[in-house]
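Put briefly, the fold is written as integer tokens. One such record reads:
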Amino acid sequence: MALYLEHFGLKEPPFRITPHTDFFFDGADRGATLEALLYAIQHEEGIVKVVGEVGSGKTMLCRVLIERLPKNVETIYLANPSFTRDEILYAVAEELKIEFSRERVTIALRALQDRLIESYAEGRRTVILIDEAHAMPEETLEQVRLLSNLETHRHKLLQIVLFGQPELDEVLAVASLRQLKDRITHGFRMRPLSQAEAATYLSFRLRAAGYRGPDLFGESAVAAIARASSGLTRRINILADKSLLAAFSEGAHGVTGGHARAAVADSEFAPRWRARRPLLAYAGAAAAGVLVGAGAYWLFAPETAPAAAAPVAAVQAPAPASPVATPRLEREQVLRLSGYDPGRNPLLQASLAAARERLGAEPDGRHSLELYLTDNSDPDRVERFLMRARTLVPLQNLYIVPLESGGRYRIWALYGVYPDREAALRAAASLPPRYLEAFRTLPRSFAELRRAL
């Protein structure tokens, strides 16, 4: 169960990717498509086609359709696109509990037609819902056409709905399937959600899960999610869930653009645009029972807190880069770094200076270890972190990088400099145990660090 349910006043996870019909969103023409499908099936409209990208909500629509059909409609759901020509016939017959010999297909067809005629006479209708139709062999789709031919003199005995990805249109365009294409009476397309529709969708899912407060997702968060998801509902669900986890890990009661960008950075399908706050840091902290952005309590506690444990062996950073190295920071980046006021905090001042030197000198391929990223840029708080850190690791290996966005600063804490990613990963295992518990250390190349400035 999601970690954040109680925090946000939710009764159940709002963004599961498994279809749950209570969470069916009828916006973005989904409701209209559902009504059209219900009408087509009950009025013997023959073959109907529904096309949409992966993750656009086709399976959810299919599940809701099954629920909404009247009781006199018998549904057969086929989700195996690898059926052969004969196997799909046998699968339909088995769903209808028809017993026959498999030696001759013509006998199976006859038995199926007799069963459908009997059902129709009793006022029952039968519909076949075929998922992943775009992946079916041509000969299997041709058998689908033959099934659609089962009829009395005046009535279709079998309704068929094909669900598939956009490739289905290309498959049906081949000359050998033109007869099947001609029998498709209605075609529907599951289009992606616009940004405004994504905002409505997020609100709807939250309220369906029991949320009763003001909108959780800010405008910048919605924009980031809509853009990175390409408007596909499955991706929106994934990003929204990760965004809520990021907000929960900070103790926030709203999802900001920063939380959403962290979710995007943690998602494989999302474009690698400048997402500055990695969600893995949030998730690792949440699992350890701490808040990322605040670190573990002992790191930022007041001076009256108990002393830290005795020093342990620290990871040694490589020797500083040559002082004659070509500066790698642009003037605007230097100005943004210098705009952060460390106050009268000597450890923080030294760490900021060391970070600027490293960022301006290290080659792109060298790496540092990210400890945390936080919106809390209070210099006194960072100074307390450094005071406790010096009992565990050499302070010259700790780099504090201020990230400016919209006139506000976030603090990025980095540790060490290593020749490559593999060396950074090996060094991470040697960090003090408290660091390993409190932080989800991530290797960051200096090219990546500079891009984030």
